[in-house]
Amino acid sequence: MRYHFYGWQQADVPAVNELYGGIGNPRELYDALMGIWCPETCAPRMRDAWSRENRTLGQCSVTAFLAQDIFGGRVYGIRRPDGNYHCYNVVGDCVFDLTSEQFGEEVLCYQDNPEQFREVHFAKEEKRLRYEYLKTALLRRNPHAITDHQG
Question: Which of 99, 109, 113, 135 has the fewest Cβ atoms nearer than 10 Å?
C-alpha cells in the first residue's frame, strides 16, 4: 500500500498493547482503519463532508487516542482556525498523524503543540462513543486480537 499520512516513513514503533494482536506498527493500524473509518466515527460537524475518498476527515482525536492505546506515547494537538485541535501521536522520537490526509496539500506544524488528554476530549459523550465504536470495530476486524477484553 502507498502511504500518505504524515510520518509514515518512520512509523515503525512497536505495539505495547497485546490486546490488538496483529497490529505491529502505525502503518498496519492505518491499513486496518481504512476499512473501519465511516460517517459514524467522523466528528458530527464534519459528517456531511465525509466520503470514502476522504476517510480520515473528522477522525483525528478518536484515531489518535486509539493509536495511543496500541503504541503508547502522547497525543498532541495542532490548533485549527476554528479553535478545535487536530490530534496526532508522538511515541519517543516518532511523530505520526494517521489522519493528516484530510488536509490535502496543507502543511501542518508538528512542533511545540499542546498535549491533548482523553479525559478532556471524552468529556464530550459523542466523542467517547465514536472512540468506543472505532475500538470495538478494530477488535472485531482483527483475527489476531485478544477477544476476551474488558471494556
Answer: 109
Q: What is the b/e burial string over 2-23, where b = at least 16 CB atoms within 10 angstroms of the residue's CB?
A: ebebbbbeebebebeeebbeeb
> 73: left (phi > 0), else alpha (psi -120 to 50), else beta?
left
- What is the sign, positive or negative, of the torsion defined by CA atoms of 118, 123, 129, 130? negative
The CA-atom distances, in angstroms, between 130 and each of 16, 33, 62 are 23, 13, 7
pTM of this prediction? Answer: 0.92
Q: At what angle do helices 26-34 and 60-71 cross, to 10 degrees?
A: 140
Sign of CA dihedral 51, 12, 122, 18: positive
pLDDT digits (tens, 9 = 90+) for 107-131: 999 999 999 999 999 999 999 999 9
Q: What does the alpha-carbon distance between residue 53 and residue 27 come to, in Å, rounded to a whole number?
A: 18
